[in-house]
Specification:
Layout: E1 11-14, H1 18-29, E2 34-37, H2 51-55, E3 60-63, H3 68-78, E4 87-90, H4 96-109, E5 112-115, E6 118-119, H5 122-126, E7 130-136, H6 140-148, E8 152-157, H7 161-191, H8 196-203, H9 211-221, H10 231-247, H11 253-267
Parallel strand pairs: 1-2, 1-3, 3-4, 4-5, 7-8
Antiparallel strand pairs: 5-7, 6-7
Helix pairs in contact: 4-7, 7-9, 7-10, 8-9, 10-11
The structure holds NADP nicotinamide-adenine-dinucleotide phosphate.
NADP nicotinamide-adenine-dinucleotide phosphate binds near residues 20 and 64.
Length: about 290
Amino acid sequence: MSKRPSPLPAIAVFGQGIIGSRAADHIVAAGYPTKTWSRSPRERSDFEADPVAAARGAAIVAIYLKDVPAVRDIFSTIEEALGPGTTVVNHATVDYETTMFLVDRCSELGCDFLNAPFTGSKVAAGNAALVYYAGGQAGVLKRIRSFLEVTSTQIMEVDSPLAATILKLTTNLITASTVQALAEGLSINLAHGISAETYLESIKPNACASVLAGMKVPSMAVGDFEPHFSLSNMLKDSRYMLDLAERAGLQAPGIANTAAQMQKRDEQGEGEFDFSILFKQFEPES
Ligand SMILES: NC(=O)c1ccc[n+]([C@@H]2O[C@H](COP(=O)([O-])OP(=O)(O)OC[C@H]3O[C@@H](n4cnc5c(N)ncnc54)[C@H](OP(=O)(O)O)[C@@H]3O)[C@@H](O)[C@H]2O)c1
């Protein structure tokens, strides 16, 4: 654990969804003077309804917003409160262009920027066990490492803000594709009278075993789609992945198919369920 500065810097946390709310709890518990903001009001004593007021005076602005429109809109709104002495830390999974937008605007405004998307879902956030992929200007990570350690168990420093975005998106590509494959495999087993427990037991000693399989096979089998990571969020990430492939002149047929399946479920109003609701594509009424 890195040494924390004294006094602790003021923090503004933007986004109070599944992850931001849990991250803010840990930041507050660690003693940082904190303000939180979210589009929908939250019942927290540190909640500030005005985004500019939330950002003003903060040494670190931590962003756990949903997607590209949310990040761009809120960043533009709070720009007047940003400048030298502020470090903007983006934790949202955004696309190539928005990563570069944040790099450029922070540079123009004279504030520091670190791109630190993460892996780890609702449970990991609750346990302060996120893993950050962090890329930014030299020295920024070193300066705020002790702050990031409050919500994480590992920080992987990468070459640039863009590398952090690309690594985050292409690891999510594996997660989305794996759940699509697990849903497919599970539905075939169930149709042949083999239980989810037996399927999972067969996966465990196999090279394809994963923490993800242990989490998602049992919950899919009982139709528990309480959101740990929402379908709408995985869908937007898959669109950002497809954009990365296109920029590189590549096809990405695997994630393109999974994205199409997620879009169908989203159109049926299932966007705020866990993305493992992909399993429902194999039910007869689908
Ligand atoms: N959950 C995970 O397992 C996980 C894992 C890795 C990365 N991530 C990434 O981390 C970020 C946060 O994830 P999350 O699961 O906490 O998301 P979430 O539960 O969907 O929360 C998103 C937050 O963004 C706000 N928001 C949405 N659209 C907005 C808009 N147009 N303008 C302003 N605010 C808006 C929401 O406000 P309202 O409450 O008003 O809707 C909420 O505060 C996302 O980029 C996600 O891809 C999540």
